[in-house]
């Protein structure tokens, strides 16, 4: 089997010895993947601490802890850190680790650029987070940075530069992933035999290539408006603030799918493994991802129904948005159909996958409700929207990342994580995340706007429940940290090469832990080894 | 201690493929960066 | 006189609502529970959107209920199937994995059914949207201007006649403002107007409007983007510098309706509420006459009533 193909060359098998040389000068996809994941986890806790400040201030009516401006800094930074620092790097890290292993490539196509894409990130975030300690404060106009408000911020230049760096990093990462997938597949690994995770990343990378430059353009215009006297968005000079929103959301909506498509890929790996049954409708899954990606480009103005769009535009963007429910529904139905007739066990990755399917779908339901323009006139910019996108991003993207981490952790470290504590982490997370976000639906429906530091006493009870859920959800993530650290450094139970009984695909044919170099000689791909290769559909 | 791929040990077929892919994608990136500026100029 | 035309205005959406009401009732009877407790201003423990008090505000409310009902039904079917699968096809119960991974018929079915449901929802939503977009036939125009962090209201015309020099700033009331300061030591629960807690939902000068009158709002801003939102009216509309947006309402019941700025506009975004006092047409006529009289003799003396004629004409 493929094992022979990865036959040991002992001189190549070991990582460089020096810490600096190994981690800072690394061109190895596994080490860079690890760096991305560690960075993402760090940012997850930093962004999470901002969320704790937010929930603490909202614990009861009345300003008790922070000034309103600092509260706005927290909401802005929480979003920027979680989106660009936690979710996106986590997916890039998983992609770095797993894509070459899944397609039988020796490494990424552009290993040195891979190093650069990662090492830009710590500098970008150091720059952005430093604004919190500077006179004048950090950005406080929301992560969307709508002008003219964002132009009032004295830290705009820092944030714009940081976003340019993150954009360059993402674009290089995306180019690398596309070049790898298109050029480095082992012989016999046809495009339509690739794991769904690889497909989801290929499509996501194209989205990144298309929209990160648009964001760069938009924030560049903000910069020149503030410092160089241009009037792109300044009505006093003939500009138009709404134009920024169009450009921003042309980036912003595909960005939302950048954060969820790889999650679909991860769930599409986990569910068949633990159902011990090939994924239902492989091609439909791939086409659905492509379809969602295409639709993401023509729905941006559904974030702007309250800016006073013409009637025709409202109707077009409403219909286009509702259409997304069809391919997304197909994915959910296919995951359920994959389970049907399987032989299921429920280890931690599968628990996260099941929770993902249910809770992400709830986020999808509220998304459908938000698409209906007259109802959106009420929902827009309320806690209903906050609840919606946290269901999609926390119980969607973040749960998929956690599930994927548990799924592949034994392959990375060579040891099994502690299943008991993994399950404790799961159950705490899934209970508290609902205590945290479900009441926010009610708050939004009752009329509580987003991004306010204080509120009328009518909103007090659900805010307190939500805050309690928030603190407990935050604390639960320390269990996650503990399980990962334990597995990486202290666990004794060795993991088998094929960690999970039902796991298929090339990544399970290499030893656990995956040696420093794999597939130096392309593996012989046998269709029955692949998750989908032997399936005729 | 770079990996084989970094040492240029890709076969010529791979190297050409990767170069062509990167070139095309770089052009796409440039085009999309200019897109908002073009859009604004057209709307003026 | 004008009441006839109001009835015609109200009839179109009203008929649409009747159908929607029937659909809502058929799809999700459990929603009646939430619908029963709908009210205009936020209440502790409120679970659902308000029905609102205007001729149009039922549109978002019924769309919300219908869409929620549809989602609950789909959720029960899908999650139900999933839980049955998780129970029946467990390895610990000796389930043997089957080999199939494809079934064209069911795939077509579960693509087609959502399309049909979406078409029904889209049809209902389009009706509500079209009726909202029609701001013609208004008997009154109010200009709303957002500032950091207060609102300005100017009465532009009423019953076809221009209103002269009636306009004022409206900002957070003093008691709320004192209470909301960090470390004020004051109790938000003690901020009351009558029996109602109005912490952060009260202003010094409310916008006074007549009921049973189609009122057109023109909404703009002088600095950053704000959003004018009274939930009881069923919509919010962004106030954007350099742009004049329009929207309309026709209030059915007299009362006091509270809302807030809904677009992040800086540090005091949470502290620029909106209060609308809806009164009968007779009371409104008296109030407007008194305002006009008070402002007429010495317009320069009251800075709050800066001339509406000087309002940015270039925006139009």
What characterizes the major β-sheet of chain C?
Answer: 6 strands, mixed
* Rg value of chain C: 25 Å
Q: What structural class do the secondary elements of chain B suggest?
A: mainly alpha
Q: Uncertain regions of chain C: pLDDT < 50 for 5+ in a row?
A: 1-38, 299-316
User: Strand-residue fraction of chain B?
Assistant: under 5%
| Beta-strand percentage range of chain C | 15-25%
Q: What overall form of chain C do the CA principal axes indicate? A: elongated
Mean pLDDT of chain B: 75
Distance between the termini of chain B: 54 Å
Query: For the terminal residues of chain C, how far apart are their CA atoms?
Result: 30 Å
> How many strand segments of chain C?
13
What is the succession of H and E elements of chain B?
H
Helix amount of chain B, in percent? over 70%
The biggest sheet of chain B, with number of strands, parallel, antiparallel or mixed sense and barrel status, is:
none
Mean pLDDT of chain C: 83
Question: Please, what is the oligomeric state?
Answer: heterotrimer
Pairing-aware structural class of the strands and helices of chain C? Answer: alpha+beta
Helix content of chain C: 25-40%
Give the tally of β-strands of chain B.
0
Brief overview:
Chain A is mainly α. Chain A has helices spanning 2-5, 19-23, 29-57, 68-103, 111-130, 156-183, 196-227, 241-258, 261-275, 282-295, 311-323, 325-339, 348-371, 373-379, 383-413, 419-446, 460-490.
Describe it.
The complex is a heterotrimer of chains A (537), B (44) and C (316). Chain A has 537 residues and is mostly helical. Chain A is 65% helix and 0% strand. Chain A is built from 17 helices and no strands. Chain A has helices spanning 2-5, 19-23, 29-57, 68-103, 111-130, 156-183, 196-227, 241-258, 261-275, 282-295, 311-323, 325-339, 348-371, 373-379, 383-413, 419-446, 460-490. In chain A, helix 5 (111-130) packs antiparallel against helix 6 (156-183) and helix 9 crosses helix 15. The longest helix of chain A is centred in the N-terminal third of the chain and has 36 residues, at 68-103. Chain A is globular, with a radius of gyration of 23 Å. Chain B starts with 11 loop residues before the first helix and ends with a helix. Chain B is rod-shaped, with a radius of gyration of 17 Å. Helices cover 73% and strands 0% of the residues of chain B. Chain B has 44 residues and is mainly alpha-helical. With 316 residues, chain C is α+β, with helices and mostly antiparallel strands. Chain C is built from 6 helices and 13 strands. In chain C, the strands form 3 sheets. In chain C, strands 1, 2, 3, 4, 8 and 11 form a 6-stranded mixed β-sheet that branches. A 5-stranded mixed β-sheet of chain C has the order 7-13-12-9-10, covered by helices on one side. Chain C has a two-stranded antiparallel sheet with strand order 5-6. In chain C, a hairpin with a 4-residue loop joins strand 9 and strand 10 (235-239). The radius of gyration of chain C is 25 Å and the shape is elongated. Mean pLDDT of chain C is 83; it is low at 1-38 and 299-316. Classes of the chains: A mainly alpha (537), B mainly alpha (44), C alpha+beta (316). Chains in contact: A-B, A-C. At the A-C interface, helix 4, helix 11, helix 12, helix 13 and helix 14 of A face helix 3, helix 4, strand 10 and strand 12 of C.
């Amino acid at each position: 089997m493929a094992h022979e193909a990865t036959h040991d060359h002992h001189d190549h098998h070991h990582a460089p010895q020096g810490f600096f040389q190994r981690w800072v000068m690394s061109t190895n996809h596994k080490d860079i993947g690890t760096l991305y994941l560690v960075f993402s986890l760090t940012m997850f806790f930093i962004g999470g601490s901002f969320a704790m400040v937010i929930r603490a201030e909202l614990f009861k009516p009345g300003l008790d802890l922070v000034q309103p401006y600092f509260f706005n800094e927290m909401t802005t930074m929480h979003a920027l850190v979680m989106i660009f620092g936690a979710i996106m790097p986590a997916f890039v890290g998983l992609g770095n680790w797993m894509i070459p292993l899944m397609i039988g490539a020796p490494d990424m196509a552009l290993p040195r650029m891979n190093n650069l894409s990662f090492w830009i990130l710590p500098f970008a975030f150091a720059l952005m987070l430093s604004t919190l300690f500077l006179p004048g404060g950090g950005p406080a106009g929301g992560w969307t940075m709508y002008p003219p408000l964002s132009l009032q911020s004295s830290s705009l230049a820092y944030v714009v530069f940081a976003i340019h760096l993150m954009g360059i990093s993402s674009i290089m990462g995306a180019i690398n992933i596309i070049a790898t997938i298109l050029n480095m597949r082992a012989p016999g690994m046809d495009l339509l035999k690739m794991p769904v995770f690889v497909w989801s990343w290929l499509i996501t990378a194209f989205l990144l290539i298309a929209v990160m430059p648009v964001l760069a353009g938009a924030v560049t215009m903000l910069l020149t408006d503030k410092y160089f006297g241009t009037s792109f968005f300044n009505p006093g000079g003939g500009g138009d603030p709404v134009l920024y929103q169009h450009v921003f959301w042309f980036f912003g909506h595909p960005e939302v799918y950048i954060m969820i498509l790889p999650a679909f890929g991860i769930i599409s790996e986990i569910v068949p493994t633990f159902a011990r049954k090939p994924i239902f409708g492989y091609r439909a899954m791939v086409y659905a991802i492509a379809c969602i990606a295409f639709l993401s480009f023509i729905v941006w103005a559904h974030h702007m129904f309250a800016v006073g769009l013409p009637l025709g535009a409202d109707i077009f963007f409403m219909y286009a948005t509702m259409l997304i429910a069809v391919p997304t529904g197909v994915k959910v139905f296919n995951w359920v159909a994959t389970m049907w007739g399987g032989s299921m066990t429920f280890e931690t990755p599968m628990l996260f996958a099941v929770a993902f399917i249910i809770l992400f779908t709830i986020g999808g339901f509220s998304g459908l409700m938000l698409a209906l323009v007259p109802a959106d006139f009420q929902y827009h910019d309320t806690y209903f929207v906050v609840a919606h996108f946290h269901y999609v991003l926390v119980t969607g993207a973040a749960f998929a990342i956690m599930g994927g981490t548990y799924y592949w952790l034994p392959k990375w470290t060579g040891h099994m994580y502690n299943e008991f504590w993994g399950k404790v982490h799961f159950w705490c997370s899934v209970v508290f995340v609902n205590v945290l976000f479900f009441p926010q639906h009610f708050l939004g429906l009752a009329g509580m706007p987003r991004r306010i530091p204080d509120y009328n006493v009518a909103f007090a009870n659900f805010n307190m429940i939500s805050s309690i859920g928030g603190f407990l959800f935050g604390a639960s993530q320390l269990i996650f940290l503990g399980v990962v650290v334990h597995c990486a450094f202290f666990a004794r139970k060795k993991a088998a090469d094929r960690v999970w009984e039902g796991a298929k695909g090339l990544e399970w044919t290499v030893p656990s832990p995956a040696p420093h170099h794999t597939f130096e000689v392309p593996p012989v791909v046998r269709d029955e080894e692949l998750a989908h290769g032997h399936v005729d559909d | 201690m770079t990996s084989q791929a970094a040492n240029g040990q890709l076969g010529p077929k791979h190297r050409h493929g990767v170069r062509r892919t990167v070139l095309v994608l770089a052009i796409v990136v440039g085009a999309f960066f200019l897109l908002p500026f073009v859009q604004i100029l057209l709307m003026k | 006189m004008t009441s006839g035309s109001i009835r015609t205005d109200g009839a179109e959406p009203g008929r649409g609502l009747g159908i929607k009401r029937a659909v809502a009732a058929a799809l999700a009877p459990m929603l009646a529970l939430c619908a029963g407790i709908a009210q205009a201003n936020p209440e502790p423990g409120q679970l659902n959107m308000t029905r609102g008090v205007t001729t149009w505000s039922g549109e978002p409310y019924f769309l919300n209920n219908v869409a929620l009902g549809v989602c609950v039904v789909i959720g029960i079917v899908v999650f139900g199937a999933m839980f049955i699968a998780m129970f029946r096809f467990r390895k610990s119960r000796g389930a043997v994995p089957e080999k199939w991974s494809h079934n064209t018929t069911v795939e077509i079915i579960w693509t087609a059914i959502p399309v049909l449901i979406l078409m029904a929802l889209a049809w209902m939503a389009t009706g509500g949207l079209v009726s909202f977009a029609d701001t013609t036939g208004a008997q009154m125009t109010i200009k709303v201007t957002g500032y950091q962090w207060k609102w300005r209201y100017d009465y532009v015309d009423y019953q076809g006649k221009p209103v002269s020099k009636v306009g004022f700033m409206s900002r957070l009331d003093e008691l709320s403002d004192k209470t909301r300061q960090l470390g004020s030591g004051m109790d938000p629960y003690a901020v009351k107007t009558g029996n109602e807690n109005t912490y952060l939902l009260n202003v010094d000068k409310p916008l006074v409007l007549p009921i049973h009158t189609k009122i057109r709002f023109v909404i703009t801003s002088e600095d950053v983007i704000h959003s004018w939102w009274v939930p009881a009216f069923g919509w919010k509309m962004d106030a954007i510098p350099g742009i004049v947006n329009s929207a309309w309402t026709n209030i059915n019941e007299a009362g006091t309706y509270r809302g807030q700025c809904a677009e992040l506009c800086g540090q005091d975004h949470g502290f620029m509420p909106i209060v609308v006092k809806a009164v009968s047409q007779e009371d409104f006529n008296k109030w407007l006459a008194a305002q006009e009289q008070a402002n007429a003799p010495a317009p320069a003396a009251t800075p709050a009533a800066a001339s509406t004629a000087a309002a940015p004409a270039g925006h139009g």
